[in-house]
Amino acid sequence: MAHSSNPQSSQPLLHSRRHLLRYLAGGGLGAIALVFARPQPATGQDLEELCSTFPQNSRCLDYLPGVQALDTAGNAIALDAFLPTTTPGIPQPVQGLPSVTYLVINDGPALAPYGLRPVCPHRGCAVLWQADQNRFACPCHGSKFDAEGRVLRGPARKPLPLVTVVERQNQIRLVDRAPSIDPR
What we know:
By secondary structure, the chain is of the alpha+beta class. The protein has a domain at 66-175: Rieske [2Fe-2S] iron-sulphur domain (Rieske Iron-sulfur Protein, 3-layer Sandwich), CATH 2.102.10.10. It is 24% helix and 22% strand. The protein has three helices and ten strands; from the N terminus they run ααβαβββββββββ. The protein has helices spanning 7-37, 44-53, 79-82; strands spanning 67-68, 92-94, 101-106, 110-116, 128-130, 135-137, 144-145, 151-153, 162-168, 171-175. The strands form two sheets. A six-stranded antiparallel β-sheet has the order 1-10-9-4-3-2, with no helix packed on it. The chain has a four-stranded antiparallel β-sheet with strand order 5-6-7-8, with no helix packed on it. The radius of gyration is 30 Å and the shape is elongated.
């Protein structure tokens, strides 16, 4: 036999072609995955999230996150006119979010970086500010909370939920999310 075909001699060539096709297909899929995995340019929603979570970030200096706080008559609140009329330790009700929010007033007077949602974490009842006792009270099950929303008496085990408060451009802005760290 002058010409003999050896089946084993064509096997490495066929084997290397299969590997080459697998590597090409895998590389192509990997390149497509990298295109979708790379960070996308920041959009308004991303900036809202960044500035809501980290209001002191340098990209947020001129950005007004959330909504402006309104007084009980529905007028925008100017920070420089509002603070001199407040008393530290007495939460101030404001509007702007779907429900009333209470601003926490610190010594100075100064705004705390958070506001209180007047919703009892026990069963979701609306809590009421009792000015004569300087506390919030739940009319449903009797839970009591101090002026900063901490539990004084149960059955509630958790403090009142928070919203983020940002002071910017003489405005009080309410962001419908809790601060990244509970400052109480």
